[in-house]
Each structure stands twice: as C-alpha cells, then as structure tokens.
C-alpha cells in the first residue's frame, strides 16, 4: 500500500526575528554595484504572527506603542503601492511593503493566501545606522514566506525587503542591509558583491584576537528620504556616466587620474571615495584572512577619512567619536551607515573598552554634544523562526 500524501498542517501562528547589522567596511558602495562587508548583530526585531480568515493584514508595533496600527485587505496592497503609499503611516509601509513585494515577486493572488496579524517588538536602536529597517523587513519576509508557503530563498527575501524600502517606503537604499540581516552568522561577516549578490561568509575572529567591536551611537538622527543621500547617489551616477561605465564598481584605483581630468572636483571626490572604498573592502577581507582582525585597523581609519573628506557625509559628532576612540587606543574606527548622523564603530582591545568608552563620553561632554550611547556588538545569526 502506498502511503497517502497528506499536506503538512497549515502554519497559523509563530514568531520570527531578524537582526540589525553593522557595516564593518564598504560604505555607499552597494548602490554602485560594489563590495560591502557587514555583519548581523545580536539586536533583533521580532514579529508575532497569527493568521485570520478574512483576507486582511494588520500591523502594529511596540515602536509606536501599538498606536498607528494599520488594517487593510490583502487585495488592497496592489492599489496602494507604490503610487498611493503616502496614505499609509510611514512605519507601516515597511511590513506592508514587504507583503506587497512578496506577493508581486511570486505572482501570488492575494485572495489565495490567509490574512495575517503582525505584531512587532524590537531592541534594534531606530535611526542609529544599525538598520532597524532591514530588521523589520527581514522578520516580516521570513514570517510571510513560511506562513504563505512561498518557498523563496534568503536572497529573494532580501530583494523583497529592498523593494519594499525603495518603492513602498520611498527610501532609495541598496541591498546590503537586507542581505546582512538575512545571511548573518555567528562570529562572521558577510562579504557581498552587490552586483552579483554573491555572498561569502568570512570569519571575523574578534574574540580570539581579544577584540571587541564598539558602537558609538551619536544620537544624531539621519533620514534616508531627505538630505544628502540622494545627492550622493546622483553624483555617483554622473561619475559613472562621464567615465562610460555601467557603475563605479567598474573603475579601478588606477582609473582615478583620468577621472580627475574629466570631472568637476566634487564629482571626482565622490567617485574617489567609492572606488577606493571598494578596494578597501577587498583589502579588508584579504587582510582578515591572512593576518587577522587586528590588521584591519588602518583600513577602518582610511575609510573614515574618505567619507569625511571626499564623500562629505560625516558630522562633527561622528568625527569626534572616531578621533577620541582612536586617541584612547582603538585599533581602528570609522563612521558606519549612510552618514549625516547615526553611529561610529571602533575595534577595541577587550581590556580597553571601559577606557575608550570613558574617553569618548568625556570628549562629547567637553564639546557640548549630547551624551552618546556606547555598547559592544557581536556578529550574530541572521533571520530565523524562533517559535
Ligand atoms: P535605520 O534602518 O538606520 O534604523 P531607517 O530610517 O532606515 O533607519 O529606518 C527606521 C524606520 O524603520 C523607523 O523610522 C520606522 O519607520 C521603521 N521601523 C524600524 N523598526 C521598527 C519597529 N520595530 N516598529 C515599527 N517601525 C519600525
Ligand atoms: Mg535603514
């Protein structure tokens, strides 16, 4: 007798989570088809999901104290995104945008999947450059992929998160954050080629080397949808066009002399940051593999100088965080994330963490800046089902 093929019981409830990330090196290279080297951190966004039988999706979050909940029919998502996204409160566009992007990516009829209630809780600092946005997207994508039985792999879930952020939220960001949040591993970084999405897991070895990665959140808020981010992207596109390449990824450090002759000073410096930063990512991965994490300090320092002087996305608080950490003995330090605020990172000997922390706090107090939030992070596991 052949066994009957009974379908697995439908998943009607569960909890999923996805982490924030720190970018070790490779800033503003992702949307230039280049290289990045982030790792997932132990701070996570969780979503509790239960299904409902009326074909609706509701989202609520502790972040907005349960207020600003949104409840709509799954069949409405298509009409709302992207043109009418402004009708949805901004935070809810992240999870609702992911639901929309997943249905689109798989060609799934929204009437064919169960409705869902999604409740979010998070310990990822918001707007600090640790990618709370990728965490909420990754948690949502993982949960819906399982409950709706979509069968997408982690890269496809990362793509859906990016599409949500770009088109449903309206933030023109690259795919680094979502890939780090989906693919993170304990004690390892994700070396990512943003053109091919080829990802390699690279051991970081911080703990065996006696090192800690310190995050210095300056509390200066950045916003992706406004400010200089769009201008920097435009400068990169202009630079690639002048050089006749598809993306700045296609240039080498040796091409910079010619670039300087062909473009205005500002565009050239934007281009120089991206081209040298791509090289620093490659160097950081090679150096880690050959000489361990202590040897990458100089690359972190050089990355910061390039963002400060060439890309001009630092702020005085970030420069002070980097300079004071280094003066107190950090192996290397740089601002991380999109810039204009957010956090810096410093690679610090375990025993020096209290001294570096105190030195940065003292420097901020002397400068009259608001007290920074300083904490260590550990390379951690990516998105997962928890219960
Ligand atoms: P970052 O990703 O650096 O933290 P972003 O501006 O990219 O900063 O994303 C932050 C936005 O993401 C928040 O303003 C909010 O709209 C949304 N968000 C992030 N986490 C949550 C959460 N747990 N609940 C609700 N919204 C969230
Ligand atoms: Mg973000």
Gyration radius, in Å: 21 Å
Q: Biggest β-sheet: count, sense, barrel?
A: 8 strands, mixed
Low-pLDDT sequence parts: none
Say what the CATH topology of the domain at 13-201 is. Answer: Ribosomal Protein S5, domain 2
Q: Give the CATH level 1 class of the domain at 13-201.
A: Alpha Beta
User: How many β-strands, per DSSP?
Assistant: 12
In helices, the fraction of residues equals 25-40%
Q: Which range does the strand content fall in?
A: 15-25%
What's the mean pLDDT score? 95
The coarse silhouette is: globular
| SS content category | alpha+beta
H/I helix tally: 11
Through-space gap between termini: 36 Å
SSE string, helices as H and strands as E: EEEEHHEHHHEEEHHHHHEEHEE
**Which hetero compounds are present in the coordinates?**
adenosine-5'-diphosphate, magnesium ion
CATH architecture call of the domain at 13-201: 2-Layer Sandwich
How does this structure look, described?
The strands form 2 sheets. Strands 1, 2, 3, 4, 5, 6, 7 and 12 form an 8-stranded mixed beta sheet that branches. The chain has helices spanning 77-80, 90-106, 132-147, 154-169, 176-183, 229-243, 256-262, 265-291, 297-309, 316-327, 353-367, and strands at 13-25, 35-52, 56-61, 70-73, 115-122, 188-193, 199-203, 211-217, 332-336, 343-349, 373-377, 384-385. The protein has a domain at 13-201: Ribosomal Protein S5, domain 2 (2-Layer Sandwich). Helix 3 (132-147) packs across helix 5 and helix 4 packs antiparallel against helix 5. The chain contains 11 helices and 12 strands. The chain is an alpha+beta fold and 387 residues long. The structure holds adenosine-5'-diphosphate (ADP) and magnesium ion. Residues 131, 133, 177 line the site of magnesium ion.
